[in-house]
Amino acid sequence: MKRKILFSTATEVNQGQGYFPQDIRRLYNVPEYLTGSGQAIGILEFSNGYSESDARQFWGLHGIAVSNVTFVSVDGTRNDGGTSPDDEEASLDLQWAGAIAPQAELIVYEANAGETFATFAEAVIATLRYVLNDTTYQPSVLSISYGDAEASFDQDSLLQISELLTQLDQKGVTVCISSGDQGAYGMHDTRGVPERHADAPASVPSAVAVGGTHLNPDGSESAWTYYGPQNGGATGGGFSDIFQKPSYQTSLNGSGRGLPDVSLNADPATGYQIIFQGQPAIVGGTSVSCPVFAGIVALLNERRAQLGRPPIQNLTSLLYTYAATLPYRDITVGNNSFNGVIGYQAVPGWDACTGFGSIDAAAFIEQLAEVDVAAPGPQPQSPPPVGSGPIVLPKPRSQYPIVRVLATIQTVEADEDVRGVHHHRLLLRDVHVLAIRGADPSIVKGYAFVAIRYGDDEGLQGPIPGLQAGHSIELQGEYIPQNDTYPSVGNPGDPVIHFVHHPIGFVVYEGRTYE
Predict the structure, then answer these.
(1) pTM
(2) Which of 237, 373, 431, 473 could bond 313 through an S-S bridge, CB–CB 3.0 to 4.6 Å?
(3) How confident is the model at residue 431 (pLDDT cuts 50, 70, 90)?
(4) With contact defined as beta carbons under 8 Å apart, do 429 and 408 qualify?
(5) Is 296 helix (H, G, I), strand (E, B) or coil?
(6) Given a cut of 70, is residue 285 above it in pLDDT?
(7) How many whole angstroms separate alpha carbon 471 and alpha carbon 459?
(8) Sequence-ordered strand ranges (E) for 362-456
(9) Structure confidence at residue 20 (pLDDT)
(10) Between helices 88-100 and 286-306, what is the axis angle to 10°?
(11) Residue range 343-357: average pLDDT?
């Protein structure tokens, strides 16, 4: 569950000392006119403490005046002061987030990871809930450098994490998560089955999954690829077996959420300098690229505040929406093969190796500083899992079967308002049965009508934003065959999927669940 810190015994930069903050700021064009002032960066740590004196030594060595560091214990776990060999994790997270956004308040949220993946997931959930309700520090971005293959976690825990990340995103808290250091193999335990695994919780659709590159001193980059003991790993990437492909990735191959989204330097052979227990060290891994990107997001939110705008929301989706114009530095060399598992190749455009590549931070910030964030809609939850076991449906409330389908929206009609109760009215095509209870799947036609109730106690909390023809939608409700349908506004006589709101149904649209 913890990232294995990747130290370098030799590096190609600064006469073997690793990249300094001024190098990374220059090579990624991090603007000097932004410092993170007015922002707070939440750094989530699990059974890893830090030494503030080490951090102050590092920042002082490079002429960086960091504003403030605050330790917050979520469950009573103490900061051990960076005395454990495992504390390099918290040290590099803290030192490099501060190197990028020195005037942001750095909040270290600490919880006990326990000894199992189950206890680690519980710690993550507890910490995210704590941050969601934190009215004292109110960070606008979180950095999480922990995780492992999705298969290591209980599915329900990942869905809870996904729901919490979605709620944080709606509050204007961007969550950045390392995509992993074991390439397409994705597991810390190299004795596992040699097959591809996506890293969790980076695979959560509302997280910004941050991968890794090899950054040369001239600014050119390739995928962080395993070549030998000096590198020690490869950038994590792949496709989720738990989370469906979100709408922002509809143009990509693969059936699940693809990651990473972006990448920054992570190869220990072109590693970062830190101070640990009073001595300089060189580290790599997506454990460092993640807090660096989180620092850039803090600068973005500072710039938005200067323009009178709220913190960025839906950043993961925006990375794809504006892919044609954002200043990505596309990575087209390398792959993420690791531990005998053939990985994904870096190719032009997005790939499951480096995502869209790295960024020109100044241009990235200026473009997204002008983006309007959508007004909050109904409280969404994480998408239901796919490909991970049978779907259990509730009992029918009438003689009609319960069905769960995936379909394409053919037509979006004007909403119906009957005595203050609102309904989205849709015609569906390409209806595909995912599960059915109470009948044979053959009764379900390839087309249907649905009216999704919202705005009262029996329906959804509010309207579903952005319903559009041609987009995929998933529904669960009662299926009323064509011969039994009742006349209604907008229905040309198609079968009806009924009660997709209360008490047995739900709707999944653009990676979010509404119920």
Answers:
(1) 0.73
(2) 373
(3) confident
(4) yes
(5) helix
(6) yes
(7) 22
(8) 402-418, 421-437, 447-454
(9) 97
(10) 30
(11) 96
